[in-house]
Amino acid sequence: MSHNLFETFAAKMRECAEADFITTRDGRRYRYADALTISAQLAGALTELGVKQGDRVAVQVDKSPEAILLYLACLRIGGVYLPLNTGYTGDEIRYFLNDAEPALFVCRPKLLDEAQALAAETGCPAVATLGSAADGSLMETAQAATPREDIVALGERDLAAILYTSGTTGRSKGAMLTHKTSPLTPKPWPKRGTSALMIG
């Protein structure tokens, strides 16, 4: 039996396929069916960029529907989502990349040059960009890649995400969240399409 958290997401999303999953203040609407489709496309992009089961994906981007869908894509293929605050400095990002050893660093488009330099310095093999308007190289790769409709089978102790602490008493430490313990689960699920996330 697989304990991949995305299995739970996918089952509920199919039940609520036509309900709104995310709406933005500028009027963009994403149904649960869209979330399934786009997360599969993003999973295909991650695969194209070399991400495999168990690999970390460091993400320092602005809030957007695609940032949430990237988390779902990581779960889908057994990747480990590593969100990084957009306020972190270059030195802090260098520390996180060295410590977590991600296979991919996803950054804001305007910071691509800095991200590539940090990736080269820390041995991170790939960098992609993701903007708040569904732009960036990651979305371009997703549109061209073969979607990953499969859901990788995982154990309950496999990692889903790593969240770094604030580091108030020293260096930040990564809290490891498994597919059993991850709190990154949207609740409650909508009844008859009445609930949606609002971003913007």
UniProtKB/TrEMBL annotation:
Residues 173-200 are annotated as: Disordered. PANTHER family: LONG-CHAIN-FATTY-ACID--COA LIGASE (PTHR43767), SURFACTIN SYNTHASE SUBUNIT 1 (PTHR43767:SF10). Coiled coil: none annotated. Residues 19-180 form the AMP-dependent synthetase/ligase domain. PROSITE patterns: AMP_BINDING. This is AMP-dependent synthetase/ligase domain-containing protein. Transmembrane segments: none annotated. It comes from the Bacteria.
